[in-house]
Design brief:
The chain has about 190 residues and is of the alpha/beta class. It has 6 helices and 5 strands. Helix content is about 40%, strand content about 15%.
């Protein structure tokens, strides 16, 4: 697989994201602010509209959000009718999962069933890092009907190569393929290649 090379950046480090989500979680508890919507609201709207057309909520799809951040994309899916218990968000930052879970709990008190979304810590690129299987999977094969990425590819593209000199992006596509049900969809918003 050929990938474009980008210079490593602070945005490609786990320490950066751990600190960022720690700060955002503190802000959430102090002021109720849910944190930044990475790339803004327009990509979220576009992704939800695309999903609603191609993988409608009426089909009861199992949906995985890779690098969920504050969970905003999944919350938006619930708002248009997706079953929260069929949605999962993973992130390698515990702070992200803590923030998403806290937001879901607070939103759940107001409306919908946000707390039914599964949020879990997972290093997406590490094939040994377990990704929670869909809760409603009759086949028990652990694959998803729709995998979403809103900005994670960008952060991964800014990571340093590993000790063997392999760019993290080299592990990205094979991991997505393993998680996708045959005939499933992968929807990505990426600024790096724009």
């Amino acid at each position: 697989m050929s990938t474009m090379e980008f210079d490593p950046s602070l945005l490609g480090t786990k320490d950066h994201w751990d600190q960022r989500y720690s700060d955002e979680l503190a802000n959430f508890h102090e002021s109720g602010l849910e944190g930044e919507v990475w790339f803004g609201e327009e990509p979220v709207v576009n992704m939800v509209e695309w999903a609603s057309t191609h993988v409608p909520s009426t089909a009861c799809p199992n949906v995985l959000d890779v690098g969920t951040g504050n969970g905003h994309l999944l919350f938006s899916m619930v708002e248009v009718g997706y079953d929260a218990s069929r949605l999962a968000g993973v992130d390698y930052s515990q702070g992200s999962v803590d923030l998403s879970t806290a937001i879901a709990k607070r939103r759940d008190e107001e409306e919908h069933a946000y707390k039914d979304i599964t949020f879990a810590v997972c290093d997406f690129l590490d094939s040994e890092s377990p990704i929670p299987p869909p809760r409603h999977d009759s086949t028990s094969d652990g694959v998803w009907d729709l995998v979403l990425d809103k900005g994670t590819y960008d952060a991964i593209s800014l990571m340093d190569s590993d000790q063997q000199g392999i760019a993290p992006l080299e592990r990205y596509v094979p991991r997505v393929v393993k998680l996708l049900r045959p005939g499933g969809y992968f929807l990505i918003t990426c600024e790096q290649l724009a």
